[in-house]
Design goal:
381 residues; 10 strands; ten-stranded antiparallel beta barrel; binds tryptophan; alpha+beta
Length: 381
C-alpha cells in the first residue's frame, strides 16, 4: 500500500501536471525511504523547475511536444539499484517544456539550472564553457536541455544536465561532441567511442559529485546482443558476456535461445553511454547499456518480470521496483506498456554494477498493450 499522506496513484482529471508528478515523486520517495522533509523539498523543486506549466490541468492536452517521454510528460523517474545500498531515486525534467519555441525552451533550461546552482552552491562552469555549442541562436530539436536530480537524503540533490549534440543540425553532432569533449579535458575521448548512428545526448554532472562525469550517448539501430557485448570502451569495463546476457534478458531473448537468441532490436534503438572522468588514459571510465524495453514487451507485467530477473541476477531485492510502479500508477501492469521505458546496466570504474529502471509518469496517456509477439526483428546473418 502507498502512504495515504501522499494521496493515491489514480490521476484525478482536475489535477495539474505539477500536482500529479509531485504526488508521484512523494510516493516514490517513501518507497526508497527518503525522509519526508527531503521528499517535500524535492517535490517543491520539481514543481519550481516545471514553472508555469506545473499549474496546467491535465485535462488540457500537452502544450508542446517533448522527446523526454512517449506521452509528452516532461518528467520521468528512475530507480537505480546496486547490491550494496538502498535504491537511488532520480527524476528527469524538461524545464523549458511549454515554452514558445526551442530558443525559449533552452533559455529557460539554462536559467533553471543556474538557479539551482545558486541555491545549492555549485558551479555551472562546465556548462557555461559549452553554451555556444549547444545553445545556438536557432537551435534544432528534439531537445535543448533536460535536468536530472538524484534525490539524496538531506534535500540537496546531485544534478545532471542533458544537452542536444544536434542543436546546430544533426550533421554537426559528431563535431559538437568532439569539441565538447576536448573543452572538457578529454581531447581523445571522441576517437575512443564505438561506431555510432548518432549522438542523442551529451550529459554533464554538476555540483557535488566525487568524480563528475561527461557522458556521451550513442545510438545503435538494429543492434544484436553479440554486437552489444563489443561496445564498451571503458578501461575496466564489463565482460562481453555480461553485456550480452543483460541485453538478452531485457529484450526477452533468453527464454527461447535457438535462432532468436541473436535477433536485432529493430523497433527502437539501443543506446550506450560512455562516461569520461579523467584525462589520463583518454579512454572512458564507464559504460552503460540502455535497452528500450517498452518496445520489446506486450505489457508492463512482462517488463517488470524482466527487470526482476535482472535485479535478482545482480543480488538486488526487487521489491522496491514493484512498489515504485504502484506509487506512480493505479492501473494494472497488463493494461498498458511503457511504464518501464528502459532497463539499463551501468559499469563505472571502482563501483559495483548498477541496474536502472526508467519509470514513466504517464500523466497524459497510457500506451495500450501491444498485440504483436515481441520482438519482431530479423535474425542476424
Ligand atoms: N524518451 C527518449 C528515449 O526514449 C529519451 C529518454 C528518456 C531516455 N529517458 C531515457 C533515453 C532513459 C535513455 C534512457 O530515447
Amino acid at each position: 500500500m502507498t502512504d495515504s499522506r501522499f494521496g493515491d496513484a489514480t490521476p484525478a482529471r482536475a489535477e495539474t501536471l505539477g500536482g500529479h508528478t509531485a504526488g508521484q515523486l512523494l510516493r516514490l520517495c517513501d518507497v526508497v525511504g527518503l525522509d519526508s522533509a527531503s521528499a517535500g523539498s524535492y517535490a517543491q523543486t520539481l514543481t519550481d523547475a516545471l514553472g508555469p506549466v506545473a499549474e496546467r490541468p491535465l485535462d488540457l492536452p500537452p502544450p508542446t511536444p517533448t522527446f523526454l517521454s512517449d506521452d509528452q510528460t516532461p518528467v520521468e523517474f528512475s530507480l537505480s539499484f546496486s547490491p550494496d545500498a538502498a535504491p537511488s531515486l532520480r527524476v528527469l525534467i524538461e524545464p523549458g517544456y511549454g515554452a514558445a519555441g526551442l530558443t525559449q525552451n533552452g533559455r529557460t533550461g539554462l536559467r533553471v539550472v543556474r538557479e539551482m546552482a545558486g541555491r545549492w552552491g555549485f558551479t555551472t562552469d562546465r556548462l557555461d564553457e559549452l553554451e555556444d555549442l549547444f545553445f545556438p541562436d536557432a537551435p534544432q530539436g528534439p531537445l535543448t536541455l533536460w535536468c536530472a536530480l538524484e534525490l539524496r537524503p538531506g534535500g540537496v540533490p546531485k544534478v545532471k544536465v542533458y544537452l542536444n549534440p544536434a542543436a546546430s543540425g544533426a550533421k554537426r553532432s559528431a563535431d559538437t561532441v568532439r569539441e565538447a569533449l576536448t573543452r572538457l579535458g578529454h581531447p581523445e575521448g571522441f576517437e575512443s567511442l564505438p561506431p555510432a548512428d548518432g549522438y542523442p545526448f551529451l550529459a554533464l554532472d554538476l555540483g557535488d559529485w566525487d568524480t563528475p562525469r561527461a557522458k556521451v550517448y550513442v545510438r545503435h539501430p538494429d543492434l544484436a546482443a553479440t554486437e552489444a557485448g563489443l561496445l564498451s570502451r571503458a578501461d575496466a569495463g564489463p565482460l562481453h558476456t555480461e553485456v550480452e546476457d543483460f541485453f538478452r534478458t531485457a529484450a526477452g531473448l533468453d527464454a527461447d535461445a535457438g535462432d532468436r537468441a541473436d535477433v536485432r532490436l529493430a523497433r527502437r534503438p539501443v543506446l550506450t553511454c560512455h562516461s569520461f572522468t579523467d584525462s589520463a588514459s583518454g579512454a572512458p571510465s564507464g559504460f552503460t547499456l540502455h535497452i528500450p524495453v517498452r518496445d520489446y514487451v506486450r505489457h508492463d507485467g512482462e517488463a517488470l518480470a524482466r527487470a526482476v530477473s535482472l535485479l535478482l541476477r545482480y543480488g538486488v531485492d526487487p521489491a522496491p521496483l514493484g512498489r515504485s510502479l504502484t506509487a506512480v500508477t493505479a492501473r494494472r501492469l497488463e493494461d498498458g506498456v511503457g511504464l518501464i521505458a528502459y532497463l539499463a546496466l551501468a559499469h563505472q570504474r571502482g563501483r559495483p554494477p548498477r541496474v536502472t529502471a526508467y519509470i514513466s509518469s504517464e500523466a497524459y496517456e497510457v500506451r495500450p498493450p501491444a498485440v504483436l509477439e515481441p520482438p519482431r526483428a530479423e535474425a542476424v546473418g
